[in-house]
Every structure is written in C-alpha cells, then in structure tokens.
Amino acid sequence: MKPRLLVVFLLLVLAACVGTTPPKEEQPPPIKEAPLAEKVEPLLAVSWSEVEGWTHQGPAAALEAFRKSCRAIGKRERWQQVCEAATQVEPGDEQSARQYFEHYFQPFQVRNEDGSVTGTITGYYGPELPGSRVPTERFKYPIYGQPSDLLIVDLDEIYPELSRYRLRGRVVGNRVVPYYERGEIDNGNTPLAGDEIFWVDDPVELFFLHIQGSGRIRLPDGEKVMVSYANQNGRPYQSVGKLLLERNIMTRDQMSMQNIRHWVEENPEAGKQLLAENPSYVFFRELSADFKSPPGALGVALTAERSLAVDPHIIPLGAPVYLATTWPGSDEPLDRLMVAQDTGGAIKGPVRADFFWGMGDDAGKIAGRMRQNGRLWVLLPKESAVPEGTDADTEMISRSVKPTGQKKN
Description:
α2 crosses α3 (77-86) and α8 crosses α9 (268-276). By secondary structure, the chain is α+β, with helices and mostly antiparallel strands. The model is unreliable at 1-29, 31-36 and 384-409 (pLDDT under 50). The protein is globular and about 60 Å long. The protein has 11 helices and 17 strands. β7 and β8 form a beta hairpin. The strands form 3 sheets. The chain has a 6-stranded mixed beta barrel with strand order 3-16-13-15-14-17. Strands 5-9-4-10-11-12 form a 6-stranded mixed β-sheet.
C-alpha cells in the first residue's frame, strides 16, 4: 500500500473507533454549563488618531519593505490597487509615505480573545556561522537538507476543519511513526547520511540556527551562502529557556539567548542533554546568491528592523503592521510601522509578533534580549478600494469591522 493511502486508511480507522464505548444504564442529570463568554473578534477598526505614536515615526522605510510584499501579493484583487499606488510614492519621502498609508489603508487594532490588546513581542535574527561543504576535523556538525524519507500528510484532504495541521512522520514496515527527534538525529542514530548540505564547527550555534530558521554560512574561501527553512520533523517545539527557568538555573532577568549559550558552553554534558530536550528539528535549503537576507514565509527577502513574524491566521501576510512596544531591556518606546512577512512556530495568537533585527552577531545580541510587551495595529486596504469578499482575509475582516473612530476596548 502506498504511504499516503496507508495514512488515510489509518486516520479513517481511528475516526471510526471514536465513540464505540456503550453508555451506562443510568446517566446522571446533565450539568448546566455556565454560558461561554462572547468571543472577541481579533480585529477592530479604529481611527488613525487611535494608532498610538503614528505621527511620531517615519513610515517611508516600511513602505520600501511593503513594496517587497507586493511582489507576492500585488496581483491579488484586494491588494492590487494599493500596490500599484505604492510605486508612485517617492522613496524616502516621509510625508508622502504617511499620506499614502492614511489614504489607502484602514487601521485595525489587534485584540486577544479576552479583549485585551497587549501581547508579547520577541526578536529574531539571521546568524552567520563558519562552515564547509564537506566535513573536516573542524567542521563536523551537519546541517541537513530535507530527508527523502520525511512523510508529510495534509489533513485538509480528509478533515477540512484540520486544514491548519500537517502530519510528519516516516514509514516503518506498514506503520506510520513519528519522525526522528533531535536527540536521535544529533547522536547519529538516524539514516540521514547523504542529506547533509553544509558542516559547521559549533553545535550550540547550530542549535540557534534551528531556532532562528535561517542564516548565513561563511565558507573557508570567504563566500557567504544563505540557508533557509525547508521543513521540520513534526515534533513539538520545547523552549530550553523555559526549562532553565523552571529548574531555577536562571531567573527571568537573566534570561537571554547569550546567557543560554554561555551556560551550555560552560556545562557541556548537561548542555547537550538540555538541547536534546527540544525534540523539534529543522531541515534547510541553500538559497541563490541573490538573497542577502533570508526570505520569510511570504517568499520575499526580510528587511532588517521592518519585517515582522506574525500568526497568519490573524494577520494577513504582506500587510503593514504598526507596532508599539519598547526597546529590549528598556522602557524607551519603540514605535514603528512594520510589514508582516514571516511566521514562526512559537508565534501563535493575535497580539504576538517576532521582530526581525537583521543579520550577524550585532543583530543577535539585541534580538536575544527582546521580550517586551506590545500592541499591534494591522493596516488593510480600505473597503472603498476593493469590493468586500474578494478573498479570504476580506471575509475575516468583514465580520469584525466597526465604524471608524469607535473607542478601543
């Protein structure tokens, strides 16, 4: 039986088994459940005056990043007019850029399910690692491409309500089993030989490359090659920082990517065991020389300090997003217009975002310290520009539109 048919068969068998336990002869009276709280729609239309700090920052740099988004979304009916108009704005002209956004876009306050408007803003970057295309005495830790035996099943073909989920695994005999986890792969207990695309010299830096999802490899001859996320082993992500907090090894004030790295390096055996507790494993692909910055989930190169990773089930990829937060480790306001161009395994929920700081160590130092409270406003084309209901994100927005100028909850 083919692997895909086998998975379908297994899922159908599992579904058929649900609810086969016979009921008891006497059933207790039903318990009256408390009424559920009314669900808050994630996007609420507001006036520009309610976008905190909007007039205090220049949006021209974000407009340049948005033009990159238009390469991916510009032919969609909802975005076509605003993308065409963006080409008419003089680059670097702050006043014209502000007028452009205010004329063509409607701001929406992003809200959590409970109606709150504050969430967590973290940072990420593209690490640069010395490496080689062949293993050597120095470069002995592999970066793997997507393995040929990695099985991927889209559940929406069987259960449309599960369209957000994919199963990943491998076939053993006539069974589908979970794919190898990090500890098995790093210990060499997997048949992945031949799937290596590069080799690096530091397993800790390699671990953080997995966390960031993309980076740059600096080869011995000076050539720099961008690598980006290709796939993942399907195992859940486990934050090693959270484990260190739970075990009282670090306090929240001490928590940073740099301190995690130092602790692992100073405790090599315990550090190796700690990293293995995150079973998630990322496989990479080599990008063409045209990419000087990693591509996000939208497929366009990210822009340092202007690209944002979001939950695409709430915020449409490609959309401008205004962010009001603070600089890492500070109360100093960091308010600026960004663009939703990426996603992340830990970026789930409405008011949740990851700020792309750029490439290299300097960007990594500030990204590793960022865990701030923040608020978000997503900018979407005004309904007057495109008829309602032209694509999926229009349908979502039409359910949550309130008259412009309504006070925020």
